[in-house]
Design goal:
The complex is a heterotrimer of chains A (about 180), B (about 850) and C (about 110).
Chain A (H helix, E strand, L loop, with lengths): L1 H17 L10 H35 L8 E8 L2 E6 L2 E7 L1 E5 L4 E7 L4 E4 L7 E3 L5 E5 L5 E7 L11 E7 L1 H8 L5
Parallel strand pairs in A: 1-5, 4-10
Antiparallel strand pairs in A: 1-2, 2-3, 5-8, 6-7, 6-9, 9-10
Chain B lengths: L2 H12 L6 H5 L3 H30 L9 H35 L8 H23 L24 H29 L12 H33 L12 H34 L7 H14 L15 H13 L1 H17 L6 H24 L1 H7 L3 H31 L7 H25 L16 H30 L38 H4 L3 H7 L12 E6 L6 E7 L5 H17 L5 H18 L10 E4 L2 E5 L7 H29 L14 H26 L5 H24 L7 H32 L9 H30 L1
Parallel strand pairs in B: 2-4
Antiparallel strand pairs in B: 1-2, 3-4
Helix pairs in contact in B: 3-4, 3-5, 3-16, 4-5, 4-6, 5-6, 5-19, 6-7, 6-19, 6-21, 7-8, 7-9, 7-21, 8-11, 8-14, 9-11, 12-14, 12-15, 14-15, 15-16, 19-20, 21-24, 21-25, 22-23, 22-25, 23-24, 23-25, 24-25
Chain C lengths: L1 H29 L14 H25 L5 H21 L2 H4 L5
Helix pairs in contact in C: 1-2, 1-3, 2-3
Classes of the chains: A alpha+beta (about 180), B mainly alpha (about 850), C mainly alpha (about 110).
């Protein structure tokens, strides 16, 4: 995408620069209109956009949550001081500012909020999704390797916004089982 | 009569009061345009200083410069001031000043309204400025998302300043939009058909229509949020049947068109200036007009793309993603038409051209990053990071500030009649260009590294320190560049020598007026036969000054101009303006009291202010028109035209039509909000629906229809030479009956503070009641005018206007009554 | 004025169709008519959306044909309204194309 953008930018710059050179043959107004407006303005632009949009829709489809049965289901509830996570597989247990997930499995996060709008964002795992009062949004994410991933809220929520962070810990099969059995908080 | 004598006579008729007193009573568009521009640039400076403070805070990690609360006020007010108090008013100012001159006429359609809009802007802006100075400025981000800005999480007065101040300022945008629309459609030089209009006028026409349809959703949103804050009507509270997403819809329904409302006039400047700089004409005039219209429409199909991360269904997101990419096509058509124009001509590197080149480079980058964020997966990553902030500054600074500076430097010789002397402008341009790109390229970068927008500080180990410092350093270079521009312009105004007329060799009519232009613009209105009449016809300016055109003979001390047929430009009728008056500033001061009473929660005073507004408005409208029939007015050797008061499609009728377009958009947004809450919001259905009551419904709708019928009867009576008084009074009585029905409805609504359903219903019926009472007031006014002898079979303008408003009031009242009764019957 | 209306006509229809189909989609999702993620057959809603889309395209084509058969006051208006009628047709096809490739309310 960056290469394409740079290419278009360079094209425009060259066309601009060339308009300043000494003058050339006199083409008629209609020829110019056809070349500049229909050729470059419409046909060229539409082609580029069609490719981009197709890519966007396909990639977007891949990223959005589908309710696959095997996914691990967790919930995230935001408030102005942090996040509370709960787990379908371990009812009654909640963690504060740390989300535990198994590595190498699909996870769906049901996101909502207790007060104002926040946004759930773990840059290395998935795009962001808002937490909106009265609504539950679901996000699909997957961490292939065990480890710790930084997460943060990405919608301005007033004082305390800067410190509104959390952490995603992805576990290997053993520690995940340990977490589910309550041997790990 | 020679040119000098004619000038003296016309100047005596048209000029404002001398000295500072003239500022408060002027209704002249050149004065008001300058005042608009001056005030807008004052706010640009304030907004710029706020930006400097923001950058100073972010220059180093853990800066102790501004605390979190102050920082929140800084970025909120920076965005708010730049958008609402600089960009839009600057456009209005430029258009108010330029449009009559470009169109070859003497003033805008409603001079008093121009002044009223200006003073609303000044007073509303002053409210926000006061909040900033007192340290109680809005602090929830410039798009004010509830529930953060709701009564629970922001109990202070900060948010009220935004909601009330901005709504007050918005009045000026609506006023300007109505009058620019009507001016461009009707107030042109004889012979100027649609295809001979200067391209700038097309852009301003499109922009004005966008303001009329784009601003009402925001005004609605602001009113709803203020009602929630002040009276606990839970429009945006999820636990009481409201939905904070409704605000996002309403805000972005305005917010995205707003970007193009700012960009289109700037594009109009480029389309005007660039061909002159390239010594040729614009390539593909028709294509460019079509592209501007297409852009305006497409921009209304984009709003949801600001909400891609809110979890909106995937297909909905795809619609808006597709429309967002499509909007690049008309933009590209314009960009390539401009480059093609440069290829067609011989571009010269004057100062305005430098700014246009600055525009090209900056705007193309902004457009490309814009296409990137239109792609959903990418947006999910960069949304709400510094990348988006940088992108929008590329679009707005590139797409607005550079073209505005190009236009300013292009028209400066016209404003002042002087020529630039120093090379200061070129140095300023270089600093602005380097400073801008340094600041915001760095912000793109740090945004991709994950820096969120609106954070007031960051850790030293985040790896952002150097980039942020570079950005801050560049922003100070940018500020110095802009300060130099200001110095350059001030020197130009006060210190340089007189220049020659039309230094760029342009072909449009503004250059055929004297520079600086006199109060009346043109001593006589030229007949236009080509798109740039002044290019081929070089002695046009002298002939205009000598009075060889329309309306060359001053008629008493009347300010006269003429209107034309919309499409063909054939002369239509003569308009007489009112002279200098303090009514506009009085009315806006009274309007200010109304807003102030809401801000300070002195609610007992609110009805007093409303009555005062009605009284001043009554006087305003009363003061025009005449009690005697008069014949045709001679406008040229063998052309006579009728007076405006003798036609049904008078300027007042045109203005009312477009104001009602804006009003209908408001009502449409309201109905959308109702449907949205009903279908999307959690917590529906409400605990209790309104009990349907057939007599109320029938009496209300029946009397509404009767009012429309009776005002038509009054017009028929007037046409047939009978007194229209009986029809008018019957219509009045019917309107009162409708109002009673609506009151009865409002009293029966289930607890409006308990559920958003009741709140919405209360607001909808309140809207209906307001318009019904407005119709009643207008009918009372019409009746008084009939008694005083202002209406005759020949003088038929007033009843036609009142009919429009009566019909609108009747229609909205009917819709209100029906949709209030419907749900209970459906469920 | 008829010239100005002619210029605005086709894009207005696009805007109406776009809002209407987006609204229909939202309504369908809200009222459970399209909640279940099923294929055509079990679920009428995608068909309704596609039909609405085809009708919108049809109207735009009719507008283009209609414009060809009537002459405005100015040749210029004919040119601009012609370009915009085609723009509106392309916009209808392009911006509402997702009704063909996507289903459901997720």
């Amino acid at each position: 995408m960056f290469v394409g953008s740079a290419g278009i930018f360079i094209l425009v710059t060259i066309l601009l620069a060339m308009s300043f050179r000494a003058k050339r043959s006199n083409s008629s107004e209609t020829t110019l209109e056809r070349a500049w407006i229909i050729g470059l303005g419409i046909c060229f632009t539409m082609t580029v956009l069609a490719i981009l949009l197709a890519y966007g829709i396909i990639a977007g489809n891949r990223l959005t949550a589908s309710h696959s049965e095997d996914a691990v289901k967790v919930s995230a509830r935001a408030d102005r001081s942090g996040w509370t996570f709960s787990y379908d597989a371990r009812p009654g247990h909640a963690t504060r500012d740390i989300l535990h997930i198994p590595a190498g499995q699909n996870v769906t996060v049901s996101i909502t909020t207790g007060d104002v709008i926040h946004s759930f964002w773990v840059p290395r795992l998935a795009g962001k999704l808002d937490a909106i009062p009265g609504h539950v949004n679901t996000l699909k994410l997957r961490a292939n390797e065990p480890g710790t991933y930084a997460g943060r809220s990405a919608e301005y929520s007033g004082p305390g916004y800067l410190g509104n962070r959390f952490e995603v810990r992805s576990h290997g099969a053993d520690t995940w089982q340990a977490f589910l059995q309550g041997e790990l908080d | 009569m020679n040119a000098l004598k004619l000038h003296r006579k016309l100047d005596a008729i048209w000029s404002s009061e001398p000295g500072w007193r003239g500022w408060f009573s002027t209704v002249n568009h050149s004065d008001l345009g300058r005042m608009f521009l001056g005030t807008a640039f004052f706010y640009f400076a304030i907004g710029g200083i706020l930006a400097m403070l923001i950058r100073a805070q972010l220059a180093t990690p853990h800066s102790a410069f501004a605390g979190e609360e102050v920082y929140a006020q800084l970025f909120t007010m920076h965005g708010t001031i730049m958008m609402f108090l600089f960009a839009i008013p600057a456009i209005e100012g430029l258009a108010v000043y330029m449009i009559p001159k470009l169109l070859g006429t003497r003033d805008l359609a409603y001079p008093r309204l121009t002044a009223y809009g200006y003073w609303c802007y000044v007073f509303g802006g002053a409210m926000l400025l006061f909040s900033l100075a007192a340290g109680i400025a809005p602090n929830g981000g410039w798009f004010m998302y509830p529930p953060l800005t709701g009564p629970i999480h922001s109990p202070g007065i900060n948010t009220d300043f935004w909601l009330i101040g901005i709504t007050f300022v918005e009045i000026s945008a609506i006023c300007a939009a109505v009058e620019l629309t009507v001016s461009i459609l009707k107030f042109r030089a004889p012979g100027m058909s649609l295809d001979k209009m200067p391209i700038f006028a097309w852009y301003i026409l499109v922009t004005s229509l966008m303001i009329l349809t784009g601003f009402p959703p925001l005004i609605l949103g602001s009113i709803l949020l203020e009602l929630e804050r002040a009276f606990g009507l839970p429009f945006f509270q999820a636990d009481l049947g409201g939905d904070s997403l409704l605000w996002q819809h309403l805000f972005w329904l305005f917010g995205h068109p707003e970007v193009y409302i700012i960009f289109l006039p700037a594009a109009g400047i480029i389309s005007t200036v660039l061909p002159v700089m390239a010594r040729t004409t614009l390539l593909g005039y028709g294509w460019v007009v079509a592209a501007a219209v297409a852009l305006a429409f497409l921009s209304f199909g984009l709003w949801v793309h600001h909400m891609f991360t809110t979890g909106i269904p995937h297909m909905g997101v795809a619609f808006f993603s597709a429309a967002s990419t499509l909007v690049a096509v008309p933009t590209a058509v314009q960009v390539f038409a401009w480059i093609g124009t440069m290829w067609k001509g011989r571009p010269e590197l004057h100062l305005p051209m430098l700014h246009i080149l600055g525009f090209f480079i900056t705007f193309v980058i902004g457009g490309l990053t814009g296409v990137m964020v239109a792609i959903v997966p990418f947006d999910w990553q960069v949304h709400d990071t510094a990348f988006v902030t940088a992108h929008l500054h590329y679009v707005l600074f590139g797409g607005f500030v550079f073209p505005l500076l190009a236009g300013l430097y292009y028209w400066l010789p016209l404003f002042t009649g002087r020529q630039r002397f120093f090379k200061l402008g070129e140095i300023a341009f270089a600093l602005v260009f380097i400073g801008f790109h340094g600041t915001f390229l760095a912000m793109h970068w740090v945004g991709l590294l994950g820096q969120r927008r609106r954070i007031y500080t960051y850790d030293a180990d985040a790896g952002w320190t150097t980039i942020n410092f570079l950005s801050s350093l560049s922003s100070f270079i940018l500020a110095i560049g802009l300060a130099l521009v200001l110095i350059d312009i001030l020197m130009h105004m006060f210190a340089t020598v007189r220049g020659k007329r039309n230094p760029w060799g342009a072909g449009t009519l503004e250059w055929a007026a004297m520079s600086p232009p006199p109060s009346y613009n043109f001593a006589s209105l030229p007949v236009v036969r080509t798109r740039d009449p002044f290019r081929t016809d070089t002695d046009l300016a002298e002939r205009i000054a000598k009075g060889e055109g329309y309306l060359a003979k001053p008629n008493g001390n009347l300010r006269e101009t003429l209107t034309v047929d919309v499409a063909s430009g054939k002369p239509d009728y003569v308009v007489r303006y009112s002279a200098n008056t303090r009514l506009p500033i009085t009315l806006s001061a009274v309007t200010g009291l109304f807003f102030l009473s809401l801000l300070l929660k002195i609610y007992w005073f609110t009805p007093v202010a409303v009555i005062a507004i009605a009284i001043v408005t009554w006087r305003w409208v009363w003061s025009s028109g005449s009690r005697n029939d008069s014949g045709l007015v001679s406008v040229a050797a063998n052309t006579k035209l009728a007076l405006a008061e003798t036609v049904e499609a008078s300027p007042g009728w045109w203005g009312s039509t477009f104001l009602l377009v804006a009003n209908a958009t408001f009502f449409g947004s309201l109905i959308f909000g109702y449907a949205f809450l009903w279908t999307i919001a959690p917590g529906w259905p409400p605990p209790q629906w309104l009990e349907p009551w057939a007599p109320e419904l029938l009496a209300g709708t029946g009397s509404a229809i009767a009012a429309s019928a009776f005002i038509r009867m009054a017009m028929r009576q007037n046409r047939n030479g009978q007194s229209p008084q009986s029809g008018c009074l019957l219509a009045f009585a019917a309107t009162i009956m409708t109002a009673v029905s609506l009151c009865s409805l409002m009293l029966r609504i289930p607890d409006p503070t308990g559920h958003a359903y009741g709140a919405t219903l209360l607001f909808i019926s309140g809207y209906g009641l307001f318009h019904t009472l407005l119709s009643a007031l207008m009918l009372a006014f019409l009746s008084a005018r009939i008694s005083a002898g202002f209406v005759s079979p020949q003088r038929k303008a007033a009843p036609a206007i009142v009919r429009l408003w009566t019909d609108y009031g009747a229609a909205t009242a009917t819709v209100c009554l029906v949709i209030s009764h419907l749900p209970a019957w459906l469920t | 004025m008829s010239d100005v209306i002619r210029i605005l006509f086709a894009p207005l229809i696009w805007l109406a169709a776009f809002s209407l189909i987006y609204g229909l989609h939202g309504l369908g999702c809200a009222s459970d008519m399209a909640k279940s993620e099923t294929t055509i057959g079990d679920n009428i809603w995608p068909v309704v959306l596609i039909l609405a889309w085809l009708i919108a395209i049809g109207i735009q084509i009719v507008v283009i044909i209609g414009f060809r058969q009537t002459k405005p006051h100015l040749a210029f208006t004919g040119q601009v309204s012609g370009i915009l009628a085609w723009t509106a047709l392309v916009a209808t096809v392009w911006s509402l194309f997702p009704v063909m490739v996507m289903t459901g309310c997720t």
